[in-house]
Design goal:
This protein is α/β, with parallel strands linked by helices. 44% of the residues lie in helices and 10% in strands. The strands form three sheets. A five-stranded parallel sheet has the order 5-6-7-8-9, with helices on one face. The chain has a two-stranded antiparallel sheet with strand order 1-2. A two-stranded antiparallel ribbon has the order 3-4.
């Protein structure tokens, strides 16, 4: 299932009223709207009908138009199908709270923990209701529950356990109450200290990683049964020589992360535009030479 509209990292803040900026050559971004004077205004947003509000309303309308246009079309004798949906996951309660409130929300975690918990609970409930609504609208048979929360790299383990973990656990359990689905999480940045807790407490069995990351240390911490996705950092892929890309991929693949055969080599987080093809080829060659099980 694809995401519509290139709204990665902005769709939830957009839903709650943050202005969205599309800068040339950049991924979209939003501006926080909650200040100390209006920080409770967010609770007036109706989260019970998520598909009636942009951007999700817009994405559904777009998908329906594309499905109508694809009707009767074929490519090499195969029918064209439009399978894209609005995002089924979430960027995470802490990340979205910071999108809405700015860095002041990190202070709220300490100075106004009741508000912080209420806001993250509200955002988690909105994400749950949206995922259920989208699933029901198109009759999607889900086999995986995914979540992200990049901002947890900014907090310590104790704060994560006390303030954020309950919302992560609630999200997964609400959408997968019988624990039958594969549970995944995307985490950019240096969030490695949280991985073992998330695996144990939320039942996450697959982590999609960004940068920086000590693959060997993470692998030892979570154990060989937990899947890890990651690889060469964006800066090296974009600006490094092919030899540097090959060497970095080799160092990752020989770090011990292949034990248990639960590692997928990919770029660290997202592949940016204009990465030289020779650099991608170098990473591929390293995978062939050092990454085969």
């Amino acid at each position: 299932m694809g995401r519509l509209g290139g709204w990665q990292n902005v769709y939830e803040a957009w839903f709650f009223g943050c202005p969205v900026h599309f800068e040339p050559g950049q991924v979209p971004a939003t501006t926080p709207i909650l200040t100390s004077r209006n920080k409770r205004s967010i609770f007036a947003v109706d989260i019970t009908r998520p598909l009636e509000r942009d951007p999700f309303r817009r994405s559904i309308e777009f998908a329906e138009r594309m499905r109508e246009r694809a009707r009767g079309l074929a490519y090499r004798d195969r029918p064209v199908e439009v399978t894209a949906t609005p995002p089924l996951g979430s960027d995470g309660p802490l990340t979205v709270a910071v999108n809405l409130r700015g860095s002041e929300f990190l202070s709220d975690l300490v100075e106004d923990p009741a508000y912080a918990d209420e806001l993250m609970g509200f955002l988690t409930e909105a994400a749950i209701l949206r995922a259920k609504a989208i699933t029901a609208l198109w009759g999607i048979q889900r086999q995986e529950i995914g979540l992200a929360d990049d901002m947890i790299e900014a907090i310590g383990v104790r704060t994560y356990i006390e303030r954020v973990l309950p919302h992560h656990r609630r999200y997964y359990d609400a959408l997968d109450p019988e624990r039958r689905m594969r549970r995944t999480m995307h985490l950019c940045g240096d969030a490695c200290r949280h991985f073992p807790i998330i695996a144990a407490e939320c039942g996450v069995s697959s982590f999609d990683t960004g940068f920086p990351l000590d693959f060997a240390a993470v692998h030892r911490a979570v154990g060989p049964s937990v899947e890890i996705l990651g690889g060469v950092e964006v800066a090296t892929l974009l600006h490094g020589a092919p030899e540097a890309v090959f060497a970095r991929a080799q160092s990752i693949l020989t770090s011990g992360v292949l034990e248990g055969e639960r590692f997928i080599l990919r770029e660290a987080n997202n592949l940016p535009p204009c990465v030289p093809m020779e650099n991608l080829a170098a990473m591929y060659r390293a995978a062939q030479e050092y990454g085969c099980y």
